[in-house]
Amino acid sequence: MAAPELEKPSQPISAVPVRHPGRWVAVVVLAVLAAMFVNTVLTNDGFRWDVVGRYLFSAPILNGLQNTLLLTVLSMAIGIVGGIGLAIMRLSPNPVLTSVAGLYIWVFRGTPLIAQLLFWNFLAALYPQLSLGVPFGPAFVVFDTNQLITQFAACLLGLGLNEAAYMAEIVRGGLLSVDEGQTEAAGALGMSRAQTLRRIVLPQAMRVIIPPTGNETISMLKSTSLVVVIGYFELLTSAQRIYSQNFQTIPLLIVVAIWYLALTSVLSVGQAFVERRYGRGATRMSTGGSRMFGMGAQR
Amino acid sequence: MTTPMVEALGIHKSFGRVEVLRGVDLTVMPGEVACLIGPSGSGKSTFLRCINHLERIDAGRMRVDGDLIGYRERGGKLHEMRESEVARQRRDIGMVFQRFNLFPHMTAAENVMEAPLTVRRESRRAARARACALLDRVGLADKYDTYPVQLSGGQQQRVAIARALAMEPRLMLFDEPTSALDPELVGEVLDVMRGLAADGMTMVVVTHEIGFAREVGDTLAFMDEGRIVESGDPRDLVTNPREERTRAFLAKVL
After folding, report:
1. Residues of B in contact with A190 (CB under 8 A)
2. Among A184, A203, A299, whose Cβ lies nearest the Cβ of B149?
């Protein structure tokens, strides 16, 4: 009584697929919501798209954008270099180095970033002069703190040193993820500890370090707006200055959002490329590319 | 009289309160293949790792080619060696691990080139030429630019042997080199080791392959509870063990 097409099991299966009515309901609901959203964006005059267009490439906005980029890149550079150093200290067999790094991370992660920015900005109140010389002895050069630590320098110190504390934990996690056998194999070949770290351990740790570092960079992009507390300016501050005068709050916030989204997109693409670079040898199928699609097997 | 390649005298090693090695003596002459067998936990791997100072010994003296390993004797006192000095000693001692420990982010050839490039500062071209020659020698002529994940266990272990040989060691240590392999892949690794032995390489091999030990080994030592229970000619020892513990162990594995 079996149907004829079921008699040959080697034939490709042509079965009736399971129906998913719930999915269709969800699609309809979302489609309606999307239509409502597009409608309001196009019809509500409050968005003032003409104002958005006028300010998107205006000089003050581009100025702010430049500062945002500069602060992000430099602070992240300080953060990453400092983080690697702190992570290596924390994993060192020397208990003094370990606890100094631990103390640093405790202080810089445990106090608000705004407070740290303010602290660096008002360092002159604590130390009007900074000098280079023999400890407890004579000084060779003396600087005026306010001249040495400009607003920009205070921003970098605040953002960068704070970031280093977070990066330290990210890098430490990456270093710990590398199998101990790797260090032993390198050691047995006669490689020094520094060579092993640079050539064997760090490149493998990078696979674990990069994704959260991408997170940190995108987060930093927006954290730079905190520099407003010490009177410096970047993208968001520039927009605020403009709408405090012309009251076009929403259009200028849209301008800012467009720029942040554009920068985040560029960073995401960059991250994918770096991940591919360090994913070499991680998967059987390719030399790393498949992880771009978020489904590469971990071996 | 020739200097022994390995001369271990009264080696002791504890991990915390567990005494893993309780006075191990072993002498391996140049060109000899010494095999170590014994139940798991008998200390044979730990002993092997003491030879290149991956483990620091608590008592005794370890000499390789006449040189004290990890320490310097001066004025009747032992001085710990600096990390760079230990690294220099290790250059001459190749090691092959149970779990291969290849560098996964490098191709087979890059794995073999790594130590000559970073430790001996060879030129890339010279290192590459040697790496290719060594990979040819272990039968992987078509795998130069393959990453370890894409290789079978047996192929990975052969790359690991080539990597150790790239530093032109005087002594090769094998830590259960076939224990992590599927049975059908064991032969290809043992073949490479057989070839090395035939070329006169001094080898210390921790293994469960009694057949290999009997065929290739010049000496066979049976370890149990941190001591060498008996040692001697492999054929004699396998067919005619003197000690009861050796007999019991061999009965289980043969």
Report:
1. 87-91, 115, 119, 167
2. A299
Chain B residues with CB-CB distance to A209 below 8 A: none
What does the pLDDT look like over A264-293, one tens digit per residue? 999 999 999 999 888 888 877 654 444 444
pLDDT tens-digit series, residues B17-30: 999 999 999 999 99
Report if residue A27 sits inside a domain. no
Contact assessment for residue A233 and residue A64, using Cβ atoms and an 8 Å cutoff: yes
The reported pLDDT for the residue numbered A126 is: 85
- Residue A148 confidence (pLDDT): 82
* Residue numbers of chain B with a pLDDT score lower than 50: none
Of B52, B83, B97, the CB nearest to A193: B83
Separation of alpha carbons B146 and B220, rounded Å: 36
Global confidence as pTM: 0.83
Domain presence at residue A267: yes
| A184:B88 CB<8 A | no
Distance CA B243, CA B220 (A): 14
A-B interface: how many C-beta pairs under 8 angstroms?
80
Decide if A168 is inside a domain: yes
> Where residue A151 sits, what CATH number does that domain have?
1.10.3720.10
Rounded CA-CA distance B25/B132 in Å is: 38
Instruction: Starting at the earlier edge strand, list the strands of the sheet with B171-175.
Output: B93-96, B171-175, B202-206, B33-37, B219-224, B227-232
Give the C-alpha separation, B233 to B247, whole Å: 15
User: Higher confidence at residue A135 or residue B195?
Assistant: B195
Residue A287 to residue A183: CA distance in whole angstroms: 23
pLDDT for residue A6: 55
Query: Would you state the pLDDT for residue A293?
Result: 42
- A289 to chain B, any CB pair closer than 8 A? The answer is no
- When divided into structural domains, chain A yields a total of 1
Judge if ipTM > 0.90. Answer: yes
Q: Do B119 and A189 touch (CB under 8 A)?
A: yes
Chain A residues in contact with B167 (beta carbon < 8 A): 189-190
